[in-house]
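tool_call predict_complex ligand=adenosine-5'-diphosphate
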Amino acid sequence: MTDSVLTFNAGSSSLKFALFACRGQSVDPLFRGQLEDLDEDPRFLVSDAGGRRIVDQDLGQLRPGAWTHAEALAHLLHWIDAHDDGLVLRAIGHRVVHGGERFAAPVVVDDAVADAIEALTALAPLHQPASIAPIRALAALRPALPQVACFDTAFHSTLDAVERTFAIGADLRAHGVRRFGFHGLSYEYIAGELPARLGPRAEGRVVVAHLGNGASMCAMQGRRSRATTMGFTALDGLMMGTRCGALDPGAVLHLLRHAGIDAATLERKLYREAGLLGVSGLSHDMRTLLASQAPAAALAVDLYCHRIVREVGSLAAAIGGLDALVFTAGIGENAAPVRERVVDALGWMGLRLDVRANDSGAPCITTADSPVQAFVIPTNEEAVVARQTLARVAGFAPSQS
Ligand code: ADP
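tool_result ok
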């Protein structure tokens, strides 16, 4: 009998999952997959640990129409049970984007915790409802199975007061308005990988760029978060696939007061219709934009890279310099032209691109004599969720590696 942990990373219409075997305090991937497009064209996809697709099932053929989270999850649990190779499911872990003031560490979910997570929906409207739906559905399907919420905000609990505080009055700060920071599960994974890649420099001044559909950067020292680009919500900081990133609050006030746009519409426009999509008018997908000849697509990519470059300067200033820059997530791991532009623009800081290494996706993309090194490290948020979940239910502290 082998203990296992199931993890979920929920998006608005898809649900990524991964199953890990637990050996002592370590977790080994067994399967990963996705319940996708549940509203329109539901599919169930599973790959083995080597990335080989072993299930690609059109759920519409089992039952036409949209599938609820509960139905899709029941299907997944049934599949896991049917593939029982002596595995015993011990716990389920969830990536939850916002932990607010209350949650700075993984927590076992009961009704009160689920309510508290749901109450943070206004602070993460794109993500929080998607996380809570499978938590509630699984509580009904498997009430005896512990569920653990692992928070993207938690890694940034080491930010000090000048990084946490916005320059607003105490009456406004009393509403809980402060910098939280996000993508913490990804940053924790990268922090665990740094020693093997960077040697002693791992403990130095490292800026990590998590560039996926959502995007942020984290300045680490001693592999802990010292500064980060996202703020109170996951809307701040870098330009993203469909989110605007940093925007003058005066522009928000102007649009609300003088442009006839109500708050709900503006929220949608800033979260879902801005960023690469908004500037290009074409797509939120970096692949599409890099392949396009349209001037607006070129402007979107230029702006995307420019924002990263500016924020690297700001984060490096916050930690007194830079020893290494790390790229991760979909764009960071795969978009060599984006990395090239960013690293070239940071030549003044001591980064020298190794063009061939960058184009071939090598782990280190700067030259041997580059004073500051740049790396590509694939992230693995699911592994962090699995480790934190196992640690929480087994009662030991999660290791960082
Ligand atoms: P999420 O935040 O949803 O997990 P990902 O980390 O998968 O997103 O990143 C998605 C982004 O990665 C998209 O903009 C996509 O275009 C980009 N991406 C993935 N593969 C490539 C590639 N080969 N070249 C350029 N961009 C890529």
